[in-house]
């Protein structure tokens, strides 16, 4: 438990023994008990950049989910080892696009005669295989903090975008930030023949959105927004772009986890905020800003942690750090060379976005 002084001391001692050999990254959705040992915290974009900027660390311990550890492995050198403290920390959204399904979708686009006009843009929340597919077909990766810039870039390269795997981030960015209409978007369902779309529908679309979503952010509804506005007059509603379109459309502010933190840092004393993102982060921010007189509540009435983010707890972190300190490399995440080469191409296109 977070208050277990024995575990806290063991984590501290193992980290001290490892010294500069280890660098611990923590995503904003991680538990407090884990975040206290992170050398750096951030959103997916910041953590990808920070992992790449630590060539002296032999071990990168990634407190986050599997696709983030894969991305860190792709962006670091071959002799650096990336460790995920619990291998079961996946992401249900990333799992919604498999390599086979995506290859099949490309055949569908080819048969409709549009593959040459399509640029794939894949959300960071995807497997290394999907990132490799993206790199191979001239596309880029994006995160929730640079999705607009990624789409701007993609529409300079081609006329259409295949957006993987989060339909909400794709739709919200297209409609809210790029001035497209909902009619410019179609949803490709990998469980239906031809994605459930006719060739004419595919030809007419500008944004082909993969039918994936985040189950955590999917729980916020228009009712959650209306309820909180009634409950707390004058409240500012701030949500993550993984939320459904009607939630984003009804919110006052929309942005990545890093954006959410910056917005609350800049908020005046006495302001009230309802936040639509993962609960570990919202609780941490509520506690941090309460002394400054900022009232911060969770957007929904029922709690929602990301269960896979939460798999990384203090016992797993202690186990990983102590194993490394004893010279045992555990839970290494290693992407194979061919996948890595193409995935890196796509990730580097993202890092080079203006
Ligand atoms: P960001 O940290 O990029 O906002 O992403 C949120 C998320 O859901 C990560 O899984
Ligand atoms: Fe995946 Fe959603 Fe959890 Fe992020 S919050 S890791 S998108 S399931």
- CATH architectural designation of the largest domain: 3-Layer(aba) Sandwich
Give the helix proportion (percent range).
Answer: 40-55%
What is the total tally of β strands? 13
| Main pleated-sheet profile | 5 strands, parallel
**Please, how many domains?**
3
Describe this entry's structure for a reader.
The chain has about 350 residues and is α/β, with parallel strands linked by helices. It is about 45% helix and about 15% strand. Helix 1 runs parallel beside helix 14, helix 3 packs parallel to helix 4 (about 65-75) and helix 6 (about 130-135) crosses helix 15. Iron/sulfur cluster binds next to loops. It catalyses: iminosuccinate + dihydroxyacetone phosphate = quinolinate + phosphate + 2 H2O + H(+). This is Quinolinate synthase. Keywords: 4Fe-4S, Cytoplasm, Iron, Iron-sulfur, Metal-binding, Pyridine nucleotide biosynthesis, Transferase.
List the helices and strands and how they pair.
Elements: H1 5-18, E1 22-27, H2 32-35, E2 40-42, H3 44-52, E3 59-63, H4 66-75, E4 81-83, H5 99-111, E5 118-123, H6 128-136, E6 140-142, H7 147-157, E7 160-164, H8 167-177, E8 185-188, H9 199-204, E9 207-210, H10 222-231, E10 236-239, H11 245-250, E11 253-254, H12 257-266, E12 272-276, H13 279-289, E13 295-298, H14 314-325, H15 337-351
Parallel strand pairs: 1-2, 1-3, 3-4, 5-6, 5-7, 7-9, 8-9, 10-11, 10-12, 12-13
Helix pairs in contact: 1-14, 3-4, 6-15
The protein binds 1,3-dihydroxyacetonephosphate and iron/sulfur cluster (SF4).
């Amino acid at each position: 438990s977070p208050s277990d002084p024995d575990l806290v001391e063991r984590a501290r001692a193992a980290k001290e023994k490892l010294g500069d050999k280890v660098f611990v990254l923590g995503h904003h959705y991680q538990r407090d008990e884990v975040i206290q040992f992170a050398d750096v915290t951030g959103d997916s974009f910041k953590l990808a950049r920070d992992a790449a900027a630590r060539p002296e660390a032999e071990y990168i311990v990634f407190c986050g989910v599997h696709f983030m550890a894969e991305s860190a492995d792709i962006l670091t050198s071959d002799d650096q080892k990336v460790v995920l403290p619990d291998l079961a920390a996946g992401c249900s959204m990333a799992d919604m696009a498999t390599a086979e399904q995506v290859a099949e979708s490309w055949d569908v686009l080819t048969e409709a005669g549009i593959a040459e006009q399509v640029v794939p843009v894949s959300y960071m929340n995807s497997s290394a295989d999907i990132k490799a597919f993206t790199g191979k077909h001239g596309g880029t990766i994006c995160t929730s903090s640079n999705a607009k810039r990624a789409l701007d870039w993609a529409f300079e390269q081609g006329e259409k975008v295949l957006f993987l795997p989060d339909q909400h981030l794709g739709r919200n960015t297209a409609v809210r930030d790029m001035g497209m209409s909902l009619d410019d978007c179609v949803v490709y369902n990998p469980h239906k023949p031809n994605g459930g779309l006719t060739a004419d529908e595919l030809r007419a679309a500008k944004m082909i959105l993969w039918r994936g979503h985040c189950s955590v952010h999917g729980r916020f509804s228009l009712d959650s927004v209306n309820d909180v506005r009634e409950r707390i007059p004058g409240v500012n509603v701030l949500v993550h772009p993984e939320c459904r379109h009607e939630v984003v459309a009804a919110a006052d502010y929309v942005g990545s986890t890093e954006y959410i933190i910056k917005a609350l840092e800049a908020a005046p004393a006495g302001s009230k905020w309802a936040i639509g993102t993962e609960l570990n982060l919202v609780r941490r921010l509520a506690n941090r800003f309460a002394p400054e007189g900022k009232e911060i509540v969770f957007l929904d009435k029922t709690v929602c942690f990301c269960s896979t983010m939460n798999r990384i707890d203090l016992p797993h972190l202690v186990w990983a750090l102590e194993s490394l300190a004893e010279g045992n490399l555990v839970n290494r995440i290693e992407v194979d060379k061919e996948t890595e080469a193409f995935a890196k191409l796509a990730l580097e296109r993202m890092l080079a976005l203006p």
